[in-house]
Amino acid sequence: MRSKTTFKCVGIDLGTSTIKTSFESTRYRFPSVIGEPNPAGFVSVTRDKSWVNNLVIEIDGEEWYVGSLANTQSVLKIPLAREGKVKSAREAKIAILSALGIIAGEGKKEQFIIGTGVPVATSSREMKELGKAIIGRHSFTIKNDATGEKKKIKLNIVAGQVLPEPYGCYYYVLKSQGIKKAFDSVIIDIGFGTTDILSIHRGAIVRPASGSTSEAVDTIAEKIAAFLEEKTGHIIKPETLAVALERGTKISIGGVTYDIKNQLDAVGKFVAESIIDTLDRLIRNLPPQASVKYYILTGGGVYILGKYVKSFLIEKGYASRDKVLIPDDPVMANAIGFELVAQHYAKKLSEQVR
């Protein structure tokens, strides 16, 4: 009998705006971007000393800023996903290894199994290319730019399933509700830059009935930012406004508070209806025998757009109120689900070596 191998099972959701990582009780996210090092070469002066916000990776003879550090310090920034798909397997691999480095032990030759979600418009060929790039042995160094601390990482990714990111939420809902039989479902993943729609029939992804739309949180944020700029004379960044909108409709600018509830309602309904129009077009491609049991809303945009999308689903007769589900943590649901996928693979591998 072979000795039992211990695997670290990790779920990663590589979205257009953020990368979310789930490992046991550890969950974190950072912007979905890498960048060239700051040419000035100085260590950042910041109160935030966390790895996730000061992440540098040294790999294959190159150094890259990752996430928040790339956003604030890099002149050349490379988005990992845009137009609803992963841009480059090589660059996505750099970000994935960076995320794993945070939870990896220094100098240990650890075995990882990961489940990775990518935007829905990513083709099967591109997903296979990314899976091939991440599976295998990797040696690299991560550095905390704020503290100067370094970790030399050696790990082996023995399995790395790559799937459309909303599948993670579907699997999470399946497991969290104790459902043992796959059900037909449509998952609407509302992000900052895109909204992904994934259709599942008898547990299998239906590609012709899945897709994405550029109508998402940034559409709302840009329109309301323009309204506030005209009203206040201040420059408003849509990304910053989107974060504020998650907390409510009262926005403070220059010491004055503005309640933009009416503007949010108007724009939110417009964007939600556009998402539903895309949904209607896509699900016409479901097999005739398909019967959608649940519509599942997930993604960080649920906090802003969720109630409008849910209302339209009910009003237009797609689903009754109890058939529209929102997971407990819509921001991390995809990553948590992919961690469960990784655990499933780990169990199968363990059974094979007994």
How would you describe this structure to a colleague?
The protein has 354 residues and is α+β, with helices and mostly antiparallel strands. It has helices at residues 68-73, 89-103, 124-134, 166-176, 217-232, 238-245, 261-283, 302-315, 333-352; strands spanning 7-14, 18-23, 26-31, 33-35, 55-59, 62-66, 77-79, 81-82, 85-86, 109-118, 136-144, 150-164, 185-190, 195-201, 204-205, 211-213, 250-253, 256-259, 294-298, 324-325. The chain has a ten-stranded mixed beta sheet. A hairpin with a 2-residue loop joins strand 5 and strand 6. Helix 2 packs across helix 3. The protein is globular, with a radius of gyration of 21 Å. The termini are close together. 46% of the residues are buried. The model has no long low-confidence stretch (mean pLDDT 91).
- Average pLDDT, rounded to a whole number, is 91
Helix count, per DSSP?
A: 9
The helical percent reads 25-40%
Cross-sheet strand order for the largest sheet: 3-2-1-10-12-11-5-6-4-7
Portion in beta strands:
25-35%
Structural class, from helix and strand content?
A: alpha+beta
Q: What's the overall geometry?
A: globular
List the helices and strands in order. Answer: EEEEEEHEEEHEHEEHEEEEHHEEHEHEH
Radius of gyration: 21 Å
State the end-to-end distance. 6 Å
The total strand number stands at 20
Low-confidence stretches: none
The major beta sheet can be summarized as: 10 strands, mixed
List keywords for this structure.
ten-stranded mixed β-sheet; globular; 9 helices; about 35% helix; 20 strands; about 350 residues; single chain; alpha+beta
